[in-house]
Amino acid sequence: MPREIERIADQRQKGVSLVPSASVYMTGDWAARHFHHADPEVIEQIIALSTPFIASTNIQAVQLKRWDYAETALPLRSPFIEVGVTHPLLVGGDAFLHADDPAGRTRIESAFLSGVAAAERLFEKLRI
Ligand SMILES: Cc1cc2nc3c(=O)[nH]c(=O)nc-3n(C[C@H](O)[C@H](O)[C@H](O)COP(=O)(O)OP(=O)(O)OC[C@H]3O[C@@H](n4cnc5c(N)ncnc54)[C@H](O)[C@@H]3O)c2cc1C
């Protein structure tokens, strides 16, 4: 995978499209550097970088989405934080990573792992 691309997802394989439809996610660093460039220029570069995986002759339509705030810049190295004083109150989410998180960035997997860790801690506190 070129280092500019974070991942490529096949929306048909995910079951949300009847036709082959690829979403190409650029890295946060690449996206930030190209955020204010014109659409045709950005699309052309993404297609060029995707060529090893998607033949340009197979592309029938493209859409460019710019997702500001899609990724936390400084994730916490803790799966949740405890902020409750009189009652248990835990805060978690995709920006709360386990200390040994291999990816080191926000994603749906980190949100799930954070939720599981926070729930386990809550059960422990409430002795359920
Ligand atoms: C545009 C985009 C597309 C994505 N696509 C994918 C994908 O295809 N596959 C994938 O695996 N991941 C994808 N992700 C990543 C994934 O969506 C996130 O990692 C995940 O949703 C994070 O879960 P979370 O529970 O931490 O936060 P969120 O899902 O953002 O949930 C936070 C919730 O808190 C609520 N909230 C906020 N403030 C308050 C408040 N003051 N009071 C009460 N409620 C509040 C919000 O309304 C929201 O419901 C995508 C992310 C973005 C931005």
β-sheet strand percentage: 5-15%
Q: How does the major sheet shape up? A: 2 strands, antiparallel
Overall geometric form = elongated
The SSE string, one letter per element, is EEHHEEH
**Low-confidence regions:** none
Structure characterization notes:
- The chain is an alpha+beta fold.
- Strands 1-2 form a two-stranded antiparallel sheet. The protein has a two-stranded antiparallel ribbon with strand order 3-4.
- It has helices spanning 28-34, 39-50, 108-126, and strands at residues 5-10, 22-26, 81-82, 90-91.
- It folds into two domains: 5-58, no CATH class; 81-126.
- Helices cover 30% and strands 12% of the residues.
- The site of flavin-adenine dinucleotide (FAD) has 8 residues, from helix 3.
- This is Amine oxidase domain-containing protein.
Set down the secondary structure blueprint:
Elements (H helix, E strand, L loop, with lengths): L4 E6 L11 E5 L1 H7 L4 H12 L30 E2 L7 E2 L16 H19 L2
Antiparallel strand pairs: 1-2, 3-4
This protein binds flavin-adenine dinucleotide.
Q: What would a concise description of this structure say?
A:
This protein is α+β, with helices and mostly antiparallel strands and about 130 residues long. The chain has helices spanning about 30-35, 40-50, 110-125, and strands at about 5-10, 20-25, 80, 90.
Descriptive labels:
12% strand; 2 domains; binds flavin-adenine dinucleotide; 128 residues; alpha+beta; 30% helix; two-stranded antiparallel sheet; two-stranded antiparallel ribbon
